[in-house]
Amino acid sequence: MADIAVAPRAKPQIQGAWDQLKHNRNWLGFWFMVPAMAFLIFFLAYPLGLGIWLSFTDTRIGRVGHFIGTENYEWLWDDSIFWLSVFNTLLYTFVASAVKFAVGLYLALLLNEHMPFKALLRAAVLIPFIVPTVLSALAFWWIFDSQFSIISWSLRHLGLISQNINFLGDTTWARICVIFANIWRGVPFVAITLLAGLQTVSPSLYEAATLDGATRWQNFRFITYPLLTPIIAVVMTFSVLFTFTDFQLIWAMTRGGPVNATHLMATLSYQRAIIAGQLGEGAAISSAMIPFLLAAIMVSWFGLQRRKWQQGESND
Amino acid sequence: MTDLPASKVDLKSVLSAPTRADHSEGMSYLQSVPRRMVTLYLPLTIIVVVLLFPFYWMALTSVKPDEQLLDLDRFNPFWTWNPTFKHFYKLLFESYYPHWLWNTMYVAICATVLSIIASVFAAYAIVRLRYKGANLVGGLIFLAYLVPPSILFIPLATVVYQYGLFDSPLALILTYPTILIPFSTWLLMGYFKTIPFELEECALIDGASRWQILIKIVVPLAIPGLISAFIFCFTLCWNEFIYALTFLQSTSNKTVPVAIVNEFVDGDIYRWGSLMAGALAGSLPLVILYAFFVEHYVSAMTGAVKE
Questions:
Q1: pLDDT by residue (tens digit) across B295-307?
Q2: How does it sit in the membrane (chain B) (predicted)?
Q3: Phi, psi values for residue A198, rounded to 5°
Q4: Of A244, A283, A263, which is closest to residue A81 (Cα–Cα)?
């Protein structure tokens, strides 16, 4: 690519220092970056650091805290509810992400087929992703109601169960329900992004493979999957990241109950920090999420690296 | 890592019928119709029905009379013959709902506009001015995209309190851009890269300043990208929950998602109708927006993941 910033420098320098500065790309670049950087520094980088600092203090709402070392973390280490929330978060993330990936990939493959009303179907599939999570979580809350659940009603009338299922009141059922709702919301995102990747795969590859006698499974395993790996890596990193830090779905459906069975680290930190007022302890819980996030970012990084390597492009 | 190869996906083809359609038809004769029924239409129907059922249920509940909602034995729960708009009436005229809708809209539009302006400058500077360290800054912005609100809300609450913004829409207008700027900068960087360098070179030779180039050449050419970024950011704002829950307190200042969860959920056994009406009314603006801009929406979603 041509370096266009050379052009103004070639002009005769008669207009003085100010004009020169006006064309200096570092100087201009700085001013162009100011608005974005101001937001990101004041409301993202600074709070991120402040959060880690708060986790080492005993700050409460309305009271300035003092440095207390790792006391918050020691306290959490012995706190069974904290460990339960860690377990819940890992379970939630793992199960939901795995199913989202499987169903999302399957749906993407189905949508990639040639069929009538294709465009309409694809548009309809994305709707769960558009509607605000809290509002669809409320619909699930109603669907999973203990007395008037439509699922219980249908199963009862099919003769499969004799009593209503206490969906959100039983620990196991509550976990299944929130994981289901998360999958329901996440599948469209995975499916549509993977579909975009699928459309870059040249159909002639399949034609050639089919001529050579490849089955549908072999087509998928040796053509689709390898070509899709890079985008799968990125999509799943995002999916894992947002599932791990999920808050609103749980808060709208169960608020962490019953008996903390669906408390995730994010909801627990909200409860401790904002509702109970223990800002320091809440900050310690949310800081404890950072190592997991770093792990997810590393996966993303290596996924992207691999894609670059596959496409054989250099960093121009 | 900052200069990731731009993907060569024709994003528009994701939703509209792709130009390759006739190619894929070439192999579909290998499958018989009954086989396609079982391997394609059946699973697809099941998935789509599961994905859309909650909305049907939401809509149905919001127009059902109360007695039909709770009496599942005398009335068929899957349909109603005498729909009522009582729940919507209650929502619009006997609650703060219009107020909440307005708050949400106001916050979403302000935050989106602020973010897009900041992102246009930042993306242009990173892609075209290429100042010293531009690649590093691009990478940092990508990392900022990966910092979730769930770990920021506690310290942000103290910051918001210190700046005296607590319980004010301004708190949300200023904090939402931290979610939106990384995303839209990354998206716009991809769009700006596709604008030919030569156009800018010509303008520079003709004596245009960088500001004029940005306003008169780059921005008009990147309009599709700006629309994508705008719609996606708007949706993200509308969807945001944890900041709004933490930073707002008084009932009249709340945004729709927070207000519905906090104000409508009481012990009333007849709350379901108005709750679902509220959820439906809160979703409709986004769904309508989406219906008009499906392609832009998808290109925003896939573009952000790939760039």
A1: 888 777 776 555 4
A2: Multi-pass membrane protein
A3: -60, -35
A4: A263
Q: Does A1 touch chain B (CB under 8 A)?
A: yes
pLDDT of residue B165: 87
pLDDT of residue B11: 42
CATH of the domain at A186: 1.10.3720.10
CA pair distance A89, A86, nearest whole angstrom: 5
Q: Do A43 and B174 touch (CB under 8 A)?
A: yes
For B123-155, how does the pLDDT look when each residue is reduced to its tens digit (9 = 90+)?
Answer: 999 988 888 888 888 888 888 888 889 999 999
Q: Which two tokens stand for residue B133?
A: 């360290």
Q: Does A138 touch chain B (CB under 8 A)?
A: yes
pTM of the model: 0.86
Encoded tokens for A86:
């860690």
Shortest alpha-carbon distance between residue B201 and chain A (Å): 6
Domain that holds residue A29: 16-54
Q: A167-192 burial by CB neighbour count: b if 16+ within 10 A, else e?
A: bbeeeebbbebbbbbbbbbbbbbbbb
| Tokens (6 digits) for B206 | 């003709």
Cβ pair A132:B257 closer than 8 A: yes
Structural domains in chain B, sorted by start: 28-64 (no CATH), 92-306 (1.10.3720.10)
List CB contacts of A29: < 8 A, sequence separation 6 or more: B125, B129, B130, B131, B132, B134
Amino acid identity, position B221: L
Task: Report residue A224 as tokens.
Answer: 């689709």
A35 and A87 together in one domain: no
Tens-place pLDDT, residues B186-208: 889 888 888 888 888 898 888 88
As given in the structure block, the two tokens for residue A168 are: 């959100």
d(CA B115, CA B112): 5
User: Does A155 lie at the interface with B, CB-CB under 8 angstroms?
Assistant: no
Length of chain A measured in residues:
316
Chain A (226-285) residues lying within 8 Å, Cβ to Cβ, of chain B: 231, 234-235, 238, 241-242, 245-248, 251-252, 265-266, 269-270, 273-274, 279, 282-283
| Distance, CA of A231 to CA of B29 (rounded, Å) | 30
Same domain membership, residue A22 and residue A128:
no
Contact residues, chain A, for B153 at CB < 8 Å: 270, 286
